[in-house]
Amino acid sequence: MEGPGMSRPWALITGGTSGIGLAVAHRLKVDHHLALIYARNHERAREAVANLQQGGETRVVARAIDLTQAEETEKGYQELLSQLGEAPEVLIQAAGIARFQAFFVQSRGLEPIEEMLQVNFLAAVRLAQKVLPAMYRRRRGCIVHLCSVSGLGGNVGVIGYGESKAALRCFTQNLAQEVAHRGISVNSVSPGRVDTPMTREFLARFKPESINAPLGRCLTPDEVAQAVEFLVRIGPAVNGQDLVIDGGTSMARARLEPI
After folding, report:
1. CA–CA separation, 161 vs 150, rounded Å?
2. pLDDT tens digits, one per residue of 120-137
3. Segment 68-125, tens digit of pLDDT
4. Rounded to whole angstroms, how far apart are CA atoms 99 and 111?
């Protein structure tokens, strides 16, 4: 609750109108005002904003921005800043796409891979460049990137997706080294298979017990959001880390089993 001389900081969340991003928004709204960036689904954005504003204590704004386009990112971010009145202190990059296909890379074109690299990696770098100057001036800030266990290597059907998340994870660790001296934390969360609209159709082809084995089920978006909330709350004491949330799957190296 805001009081005299106190105001909530803004948290900027990409992909904040669905899936993990929306779950993160619900957790962060307790202590933050929310700015949500989404791609194109205006109706879903309106529903998310209305739901997040219930109770009336949190300001929520949403804006459609194509983060793969440099000029649109610059224009959209500046318009968002004028709406917020101040730069965000927290950036959660949850936007992403997946083109899950079991194919040999040499037998297909590079378009799906290029698209995933643009959305999942380069767009995140571009937006981080926008928010960092204000964080530098304040000497505080928090950035969390949503990566994936697919970026840890050795999975079937995720060529392009895994590489884009591996690049984002490496960027997270490198950026943390550059900005830690300014009180800014940069971390990532690498979930296993999560029940979201993006993954549901792909995972339906596999035996449920093999999803995130040995856990044997999909993770919920809120389980991942709890990890993001932890990294936001703990501040710069944790920096350059990748928090794996997968029910032990990456340690067991279990494989998905087709139905």
Report:
1. 7
2. 999 999 999 999 999 999
3. 999 999 999 999 999 999 999 999 999 999 887 655 566 667 888 899 999 999 999 9
4. 10
Burial class (CB in 10 A: 0-12, 13-18, 19+), 107: exposed
pTM beyond 0.70, yes or no? yes
Tell me: the pLDDT tens digits for 188-228?
999 988 888 777 777 777 777 777 778 888 899 999 999 99
Residue 104: predicted pLDDT? 59
Q: Among the options 38, 77, 136, 161, which is catalytic?
A: 161
136 labelled catalytic: no
